[in-house]
């Protein structure tokens, strides 16, 4: 053996090797040149294009545009939101096996055998296209298509194809085959705005992807290559042929039987698409949800429309439908002007939670980010602001509904002499009378005494926008510079309805992203008023509905509320005209709080409210909506704190009430406070309703004697400079003291001038905010209590004659 091996080596070294060198050597240089000529240019081109290759970003594959969904309070779908791409991501487990197989045979049969690039498919496509003289067959794998759709631009260039192959290789290294197929099934376009198999199933078959059959799977599998051409809606014949081709390929690869294919091919094609339009139901509510997501929760428009969010809201579907029904009914509106609709808006809140149950953005509201009057309107609230700026802070400061205030012409400085709606003055009235009959002068008088900054601070705590508002006396009558929306007014009143606890109004209750992560919703909750003060306000507002300016809002259950009317501004344009600019009604039951606004979008000589007040159409709309919302609920009473007692319908306990001063014969007819006209509307809808079906509790107890108190979630501090408000019978006034106080008040003469300390003029209560403001705001004063007057009789008389009850 060793001998033979040595002989072979000797033969190679001595005979063959020299001969081979002689034959090969002449061809080495030509072969090298040929190699360089054939392969070096492509390698250089490849290197050139790859130097600008895009960085592989795995997150871009997951950040696909996805359709978002909005649900009502019961978890029922309201609408879908999407941008230009309607996409609903699904997991690979949700996709039927027949569809997965059909996609693979139609687009990438060797998907499980390559690493992103299929050289065999490239060669096959090359020879097929040469024979056909065109580009009838492609060779892109599913991974390459994913790279093209998710990362690259759609341009058809050599550079993009090189980048596509490079990225496909990177994707294959990063993800499993199932993950790649799942991403592809969610990314690919199927026509008619549908991206991904779930949106495609809903668009063409109106069903979930999990429920499609073999025929539907074959149709979808054949569409990604040319979605428009193979659309069953636009080209039924081509779509049918393509479906048959896919079914045939499945037979060839042993995936289905001949009989299954025959039955599938015989099924009819869809005749119409089910497209999620940009229009959506309940547009005012949906628009506000979008507004809340972007302004409060930090989402961008792109994230809302393309982020695959599941947004759960507080919308009560039946209540929302009723709001839209009322806004579309002419029965709740006066005749329109020649060129504008009389508009209206409303907001309904569940005060216990702050949940927004319904919104009305206006008449003929078409959605898609329209001007939402329910949340975006900025109008002066008129007398509907009195409980917020004046009376609630006064109750918190220690005043009592039966405390007595002057009602006579008073100059508060700078020529500011507010008048009552009917130009009638009663001499003295209780706070309850001032609230119920919406009398202006006592409201301004009390506002000055509690301190305007106290009222402004309380309004801010209850959600009213006070930026840019100076503490002028005109705020007592709703004379705001920038105005408020119905939603803000409803939120503010809800704090009184909720026993003094302010819950930030919110529509969104849960947000779940497309990966199942939930974003916590944490609205602001704060105590802004004591339980007793809140109850006192509710009790007075009940009086306003029972026998004051808000009788039109009466229902067969307890209702508290306040009207508000804003006159036409005293400018040249409206000279010799009698009418109003805005009309409001804001009120609540033990369950819901509602604010209604009525007016014109553009007020001018031809477009203004004629004999329309807060107590007319707005109150009627309030009644109609809440009656419907509560029709299936038992009648409840407003819970009364244990510290408060009633006697013959009047409070005793917190501070004894002085005797009610007669109105000196002045009329107490229901009319709005800050209107030029006291004439009631003759329209049947606008007139005061009969009280035959109204709820009148017994005279000894208007509410339930519940001692339960809501939790103090937040600050319990009282407004600045308030008087002590502890509830202690030992500090209550005796009957003799109350009588003495009444006599003292009766002896206080009408005050001719309450000029402010700075001598600067104060804005008029009945006109829009003037551009020339006082140089200084009204002075802040310490809020007095009834006991202050008893303790210093001479001071009461002195201050009364000098023009104020300042300490």
UniProtKB/TrEMBL annotation:
Bias (Polar residues) ranges: 713-735
Topological relation to the membrane, as annotated: Single-pass type II membrane protein
InterPro entries referenced in this protein's UniProt entry, alphabetically: Beta-lactam/transpept-like, Glyco_trans_51, Glycosyltr_51/Transpeptidase, Lysozyme-like_dom_sf, PBP_transglycosylase, PCN-bd_Tpept
Top-level lineage group: Bacteria
Pathway the protein contributes to: Cell wall biogenesis; peptidoglycan biosynthesis; Glycan biosynthesis
Keywords: Antibiotic resistance, Carboxypeptidase, Cell membrane, Cell shape, Cell wall biogenesis/degradation, Glycosyltransferase, Hydrolase, Membrane, Multifunctional enzyme, Peptidoglycan synthesis, Protease, Signal-anchor, Transferase, Transmembrane, Transmembrane helix
GO biological process: cell wall organization; peptidoglycan biosynthetic process; proteolysis; regulation of cell shape; response to antibiotic
EC code(s) of this entry: 2.4.99.28, 3.4.16.4
Membrane-spanning residues: 27-50
Domain Penicillin-binding protein transpeptidase residues, every copy: 347-626
Record's subcellular location: Cell membrane
UniProt KW Transmembrane keyword: yes
GO CC, any one term: outer membrane-bounded periplasmic space
Composition bias type Low complexity, residue spans: 666-712, 760-787
Domain Glycosyl transferase family, residue spans: 75-250
Annotated spans, Disordered: 658-807
GO molecular function: penicillin binding; peptidoglycan glycosyltransferase activity; serine-type D-Ala-D-Ala carboxypeptidase activity
Catalyzed reactions per annotation: Preferential cleavage: (Ac)2-L-Lys-D-Ala-|-D-Ala. Also transpeptidation of peptidyl-alanyl moieties that are N-acyl substituents of D-alanine; [GlcNAc-(1->4)-Mur2Ac(oyl-L-Ala-gamma-D-Glu-L-Lys-D-Ala-D-Ala)](n)-di-trans,octa-cis-undecaprenyl diphosphate + beta-D-GlcNAc-(1->4)-Mur2Ac(oyl-L-Ala-gamma-D-Glu-L-Lys-D-Ala-D-Ala)-di-trans,octa-cis-undecaprenyl diphosphate = [GlcNAc-(1->4)-Mur2Ac(oyl-L-Ala-gamma-D-Glu-L-Lys-D-Ala-D-Ala)](n+1)-di-trans,octa-cis-undecaprenyl diphosphate + di-trans,octa-cis-undecaprenyl diphosphate + H(+)
PANTHER family in alphabetical order: BINDING PROTEIN TRANSPEPTIDASE, PUTATIVE-RELATED, PENICILLIN-BINDING PROTEIN 1B
Function: Cell wall formation. Synthesis of cross-linked peptidoglycan from the lipid intermediates. The enzyme has a penicillin-insensitive transglycosylase N-terminal domain (formation of linear glycan strands) and a penicillin-sensitive transpeptidase C-terminal domain (cross-linking of the peptide subunits).
Family as reported in the entry's similarity comment: In the C-terminal section; belongs to the transpeptidase family. In the N-terminal section; belongs to the glycosyltransferase 51 family.
Protein's recorded name: Penicillin-binding protein 1A
Organism: Heliorestis convoluta
């Amino acid at each position: 053996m060793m001998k033979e091996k040595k002989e072979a080596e000797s033969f190679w070294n001595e005979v063959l090797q020299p001969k081979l060198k002689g034959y090969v050597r002449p061809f080495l240089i030509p072969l090298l040149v040929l190699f360089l000529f054939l392969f070096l240019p492509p390698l250089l081109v490849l290197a050139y294009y790859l130097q600008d290759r895009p960085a592989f970003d795995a997150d871009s594959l997951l950040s696909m545009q996805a359709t978002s969904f909005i649900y009502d309070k019961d978890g029922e779908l309201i609408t879908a939101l999407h941008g230009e791409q309607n996409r609903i991501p699904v997991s690979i487990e949700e996709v039927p096996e027949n569809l997965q197989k059909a996609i693979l045979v139609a687009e990438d049969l060797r998907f499980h055998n390559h690493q992103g690039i299929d050289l065999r498919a490239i060669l096959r496509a090359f020879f097929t296209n040469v024979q056909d003289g065109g580009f009838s067959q492609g060779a892109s794998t599913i991974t390459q298509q994913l790279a093209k759709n998710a990362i690259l631009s759609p341009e058809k260039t050599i550079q993009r194809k090189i980048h596509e192959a490079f990225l496909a290789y990177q994707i294959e290294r990063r993800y499993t085959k199932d993950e790649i197929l799942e991403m592809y099934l969610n990314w690919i376009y199927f026509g008619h705005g549908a991206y991904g198999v779930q949106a495609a199933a809903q668009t063409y078959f109106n069903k979930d992807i999990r429920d499609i059959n073999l025929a539907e799977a074959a149709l979808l599998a054949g569409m990604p290559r040319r979605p428009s051409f193979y659309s069953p809606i636009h080209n039924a014949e081509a779509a049918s042929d393509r479906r048959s081709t896919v079914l045939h390929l499945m037979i060839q690869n042993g995936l289905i039987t001949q009989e299954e294919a025959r039955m599938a091919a015989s099924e009819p094609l869809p005749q119409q698409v089910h497209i999620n339009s940009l229009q959506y139901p309940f547009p005012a509510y949906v628009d506000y949800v979008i507004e809340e997501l972007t302004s409060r929760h930090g989402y961008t428009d792109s994230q809302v429309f393309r982020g695959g969010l599941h947004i759960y809201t507080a919308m009560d579907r039946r209540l929302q439908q009723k709001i839209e029904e009322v806004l579309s009914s002419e029965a709740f509106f006066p005749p329109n002007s020649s060129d504008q609709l009389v508009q209206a808006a409303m907001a309904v809140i569940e005060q216990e939670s702050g949940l927004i149950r319904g919104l009305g953005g206006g008449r003929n509201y078409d959605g898609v980010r329209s001007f939402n009057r329910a949340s975006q309107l900025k109008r002066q609230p008129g007398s509907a602001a009195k409980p917020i700026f004046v009376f609630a802070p006064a109750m918190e400061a220690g005043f009592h509904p039966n405390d007595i205030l002057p009602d006579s012409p008073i100059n508060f400085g700078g020529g500011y002499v507010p008048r009552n709606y009917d130009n009638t003055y009663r001499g003295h009235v209780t706070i309850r009378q001032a609230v119920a009959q919406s009398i202006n002068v006592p409201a301004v008088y009390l506002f000055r005494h509690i301190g305007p900054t106290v009222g402004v601070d309380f309004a801010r705590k209850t959600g009213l926008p006070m930026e840019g508002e100076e503490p002028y006396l005109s705020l007592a009558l709703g004379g705001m510079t920038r105005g408020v929306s119905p939603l803000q007014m409803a939120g503010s009143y809800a704090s009184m309805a909720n026993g003094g606890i302010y819950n930030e109004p919110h529509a969104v209750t849960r947000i779940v992203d497309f990966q199942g992560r939930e974003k916590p919703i944490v609205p602001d909750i704060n105590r802004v008023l004591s339980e007793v003060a809140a109850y006192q306000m509710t009790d007075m507002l009940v009086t306003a509905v029972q026998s004051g300016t808000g009788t039109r809002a009466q229902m067969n259950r307890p209702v508290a509320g306040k009207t508000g009317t804003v006159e036409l501004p005293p400018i040249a344009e409206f000279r010799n005209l009698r009418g109003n600019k805005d009309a409001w009604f804001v009120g609540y039951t033990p369950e819901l709080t509602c604010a209604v606004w009525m007016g014109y979008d553009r007020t001018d000589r031809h477009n203004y409210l004629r004999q329309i007040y807060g107590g007319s159409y707005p109150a009627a709309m309030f009644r109609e909506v809440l009656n419907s919302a509560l029709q299936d609920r038992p009648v409840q009473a407003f819970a009364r704190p244990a510290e408060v007692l009633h006697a013959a319908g009047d409070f005793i306990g917190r501070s004894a009430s002085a005797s009610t001063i007669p109105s000196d014969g002045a009329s107490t007819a229901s009319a709005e406070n800050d209107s030029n006209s006291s004439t009631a509307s003759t329209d049947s809808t606008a007139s005061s309703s009969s009280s035959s079906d109204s709820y009148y509790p017994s005279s000894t107890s208007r509410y339930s004697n519940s001692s339960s108190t809501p939790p103090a979630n937040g600050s319990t501090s009282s407004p600045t400079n308030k008087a002590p408000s502890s509830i202690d019978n030992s500090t209550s006034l005796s009957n003799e003291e109350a009588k003495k106080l009444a006599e003292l008040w009766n002896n206080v003469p009408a005050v001719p001038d309450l000029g402010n300390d700075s001598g600067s003029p104060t804005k008029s209560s009945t006109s829009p905010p003037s551009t020339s403001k006082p140089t200084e705001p009204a002075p802040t004063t310490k809020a007095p209590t009834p006991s202050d007057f008893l303790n210093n009789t001479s001071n009461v008389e002195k201050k009364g004659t000098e023009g104020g009850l300042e300490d």
